[in-house]
């Protein structure tokens, strides 16, 4: 039975050292209890406590990493069937398939797509992360692709069933911590020992859910922990059914042989690029850890990246921007001052329009717990006295010589209270829509 946060806290060292990246041991204990942290993050826990906590604190679906550096993909670690219950944590990695049957020009084109298709949205970079390198018979060509991939920052999946070839590939790529694909009934002992020796994650491919669970049980019996499951199904219906069955078995039935993230192959389910994207979108929602695509195109990849962002954003915690003063277009002491909320989408739309106006400005972003202007005003979090107090403490008064502040048009009702809170200041009501800010700012000149 899982331990509560308080029960876990009693077994921790209670040093509040912060080395686990949490401010206190109690906060770390609560994160462990909810599956949001791993026990290994605490360097001071005693061996006896570690033994007692390891099973109790581990998420029912093991969390693991593929790759290193900025392109490392963290998968697994999930604790709920539906995101409205809590949240989904680790978004699925998106991989592009490159085989040894492709010529240099085609392989280079596909490598380049991982750097080409990157999108900035609400302060985040949306991008695919992995290359899946598949051996189809040309061993030297496959090893050359592995060498080429090692010269990129991308994470990789090594797809080969021959043990000798996989060993050669791992000798080249072991520092990149690739995912080995795949251990089967025929080679699981050889691949299992290889994964353990090289310290890399291993994909397990069965013929169905039961066969995959049997294989994973044998591999965990060999001491392996970082496994990725593939039930071998390549029809959309059967594969989706397996994804749901694995998630349910791990979370609800606590069935450990299926308590691992999964890998899916839309690239092997259809020859139609648009249908492939629809299949991939299904697995973004339910419940793939890695999704391997035959190719990337901007018009098909961007919707997948956006869907992934939406699903793997905590529905109970809006995306926020840090409170503070943001200088835009190199403002000085005579530049206009605007104030808004810290809902990320609001910030990026407003700051973008100010930047487009080419008007040097100070944008003061107030913490409204991620609420938009209208919602924050209705909730009493963006009202005159609070905005005035924020203006005084944020330091903008010391940065400008004038005494004028522009508030959002949707918050016009706070004008009187804000003038009382900031004696001597003139409060201007800006436009209701951010798109009208450039014209408004030019009018003020």
Q: How is the topology of this model organized?
A:
Elements lengths: L4 H7 L13 H9 L13 H11 L6 E3 L6 E3 L17 E7 L4 H13 L2 E3 L2 E3 L3 E5 L4 H12 L4 E5 L3 H11 L5 E5 L4 H11 L3 E4 L3 H13 L5 E4 L5 H16 L11 E2 L8 H13 L4 E4 L4 H14 L12 E5 L8 E5 L2 H14 L3 E6 L6 H6 L5 H11 L1 H4 L4 E4 L7 H7 L4 E4 L7 H8 L1
* Spatial ordering of strands, largest sheet: 10-9-8-7-6-3-12-11
End-to-end Cα distance: 67 Å
> Average pLDDT across residues?
93
Share of residues in strands: 15-25%
Q: Largest beta sheet, briefly?
A: 8 strands, parallel
Write the CATH fold name of the largest domain. Answer: TIM Barrel
* Annotated CATH homologous superfamily of the largest domain: Dihydropteroate synthase-like
Structural Rg: 26 Å
Number of domains: 3
Which stretches are poorly predicted, pLDDT < 50 over at least 5 residues? none
What does this structure look like?
Helix content is 40%, strand content 16%. The protein contains 17 helices and 17 strands. The protein has an eight-stranded parallel beta sheet with strand order 10-9-8-7-6-3-12-11. Helix 10 runs parallel beside helix 11 and helix 12 (344-357) packs across helix 17. It is globular, with a radius of gyration of 26 Å. The chain has three domains: 5-57, 3-methyladenine DNA Glycosylase II, Chain A, domain 3 (Orthogonal Bundle), CATH 1.10.15.40; 64-311, Alpha-Beta Barrel (TIM Barrel); 324-444, Rossmann fold (3-Layer(aba) Sandwich). Strand 14 (337-341), helix 12 (344-357) and strand 15 (361-366) form a beta-alpha-beta unit. The chain starts with a helix and ends with a helix. The chain is α/β, with parallel strands linked by helices and 445 residues long. The mean pLDDT is 93.
């Amino acid at each position: 039975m899982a331990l509560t946060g308080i029960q876990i806290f009693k077994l921790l060292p209670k040093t509040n050292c912060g080395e686990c990246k949490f401010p206190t041991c109690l906060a770390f204990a609560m994160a462990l209890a909810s599956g949001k942290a791993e026990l290994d993050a605490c360097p001071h826990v005693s061996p006896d406590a570690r033994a007692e906590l390891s099973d109790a604190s581990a998420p029912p679906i093991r969390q693991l990493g593929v790759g290193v550096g900025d392109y490392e993909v963290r998968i697994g670690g999930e604790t709920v069937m539906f995101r409205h219950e809590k949240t989904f944590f680790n978004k699925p990695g998106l991989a592009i398939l490159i085989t040894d049957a492709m010529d240099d020009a085609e392989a280079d084109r596909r490598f380049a797509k991982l750097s080409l298709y990157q999108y900035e949205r609400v302060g985040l970079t949306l991008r695919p992360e992995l290359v899946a390198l598949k051996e189809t018979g040309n061993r030297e060509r496959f090893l050359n692709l592995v060498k080429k991939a090692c010269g990129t920052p991308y994470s990789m999946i090594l797809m080969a069933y021959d043990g000798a070839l996989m060993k050669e590939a791992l000798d080249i790529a072991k520092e990149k911590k690739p995912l080995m694909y795949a251990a089967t009934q025929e080679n699981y002992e050889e691949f299992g020992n290889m994964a353990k020796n090289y310290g890399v994650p291993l994909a397990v491919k069965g013929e169905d859910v039961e066969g995959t669970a049997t294989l994973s049980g044998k591999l965990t019996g060999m001491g392996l922990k970082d496994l990725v499951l593939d039930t071998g199904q390549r029809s959309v219906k059967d594969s989706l059914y397996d994804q749901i069955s694995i998630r349910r078995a791990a979370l609800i039935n606590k069935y450990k042989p299926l308590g691992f993230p999964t890998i899916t192959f839309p690239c092997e389910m259809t020859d139609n690029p648009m249908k492939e994207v629809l299949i991939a979108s299904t697995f973004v929602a339910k419940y793939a850890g890695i999704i391997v695509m035959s190719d990337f195109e901007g018009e098909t990849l961007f919707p997948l990246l956006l869907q992934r962002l939406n699903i793997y954003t905590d529905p109970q915690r809006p995306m926020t921007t840090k409170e503070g003063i943001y200088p835009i277009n190199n403002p000085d002491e005579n530049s206009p001052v605007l104030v808004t909320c810290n809902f990320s989408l609001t910030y990026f739309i407003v700051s973008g329009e100010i930047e487009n106006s080419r008007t040097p400005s100070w944008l003061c972003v107030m913490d409204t717990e991620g609420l938009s202007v209208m919602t924050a005003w209705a909730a009493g979090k963006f009202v005159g006295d609070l905005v005035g107090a924020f203006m005084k403490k944020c330091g903008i008064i010391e940065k400008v010589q004038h005494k004028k502040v522009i508030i959002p048009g949707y918050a016009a009702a706070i004008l009187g209270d804000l003038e009382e809170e900031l004696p001597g200041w003139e409060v201007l009501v800006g436009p209701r829509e951010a798109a009208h800010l450039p014209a408004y700012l030019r009018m003020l000149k």
